[in-house]
Fold:
Amino acid sequence: MKTKILTILKEQPGFVSGQALCGWLGVSRTAVWKVIKQLEEEGYVIEAVRNKGYRLVEAADVMTEAEIGSRLCTERMGRSLVYLPQTDSTNIYARKLAQKGYPDGTLVVAESQTAGKGRRGRNWSSPAGSSIYMSLLLRPDIPPYCASMITLVAGMAVSQAVGEMTGLPARIKWPNDVVVNGRKICGILTEMSTEMESIHYIVTGIGINVNQQDFPEEIMATATSLRIEAAKKISRSALIACTMAWFEVYYDQFLKTKDLSLLKAGYETMLANMGQEVLVLDPDGTYKGICRGIDEAGRLLVDTLEGEPKRVLSGEVSVRGIYGYV
Structure:
């Protein structure tokens, strides 16, 4: 009910009567009054005038289930929403929800994580109050070999949302990072549960550096935040909602073909590697080449300096000018 009342107050430019709220929601005036008081305690400024009702004067800069839910404009993504003040890992929590039967599009958001993980098991710094830590539970009807493509879909959603909300030139560092001005602002980790040739569920974790102003020494040279780059605070709840909106758009296009054929051209416009020299750290040997984009399966296309075309599926890729490779 809190989400519904907050949504109504945000959508209405003037006062909303308590009687109208009661009628729309089918609750008592006392129940409405209690929710208004809860919102005020969270930091929302709400004007109450006798015979007029309630008017939202100023929205709080908070990240709660009600605030995120009031901003969502999606049909499925995030409509099943779980907010946690703290958890070990949003991916771990989302996997538990998957086993309980939670639906496709369930979003888990945490204020902080105690055991956040990045790619290859690396630790992901997860302090409270400044970042976005969220995981999407998905149940697509696709073969397991297509699951890795969802990482690229998520990268597009984050890049588009960051650009829309901040005006910053967010770009994707294939396969699972988003960078601004050559430094990392987002990491994406996709995991799945499979049996034979079918997928039970996929969990895509997304961590975004939003309002941090300093970083641990070991990542200080390679990481940045949207606040540092944009020189202003960014609403985390608004960015989550915007990311979900774009993810739903791109995800639906992906499901139509079960590959990236409809997204390839758009992805390449966001690709930080495009046309640049890259260093491919392949198990069979390191080599340099020029990035030519991606194929429909999400593999990175690289022309080696000797002129041999390669399709990179796994392994680390370092990009000239990003993450210290010069």
In short: The CA atoms of residues 194 and 200 lie 5 Å apart. The chain has a mean pLDDT of 90. The first strand starts at residue 45 and ends at 49. Residues 236-257 form the longest helix (22 residues).
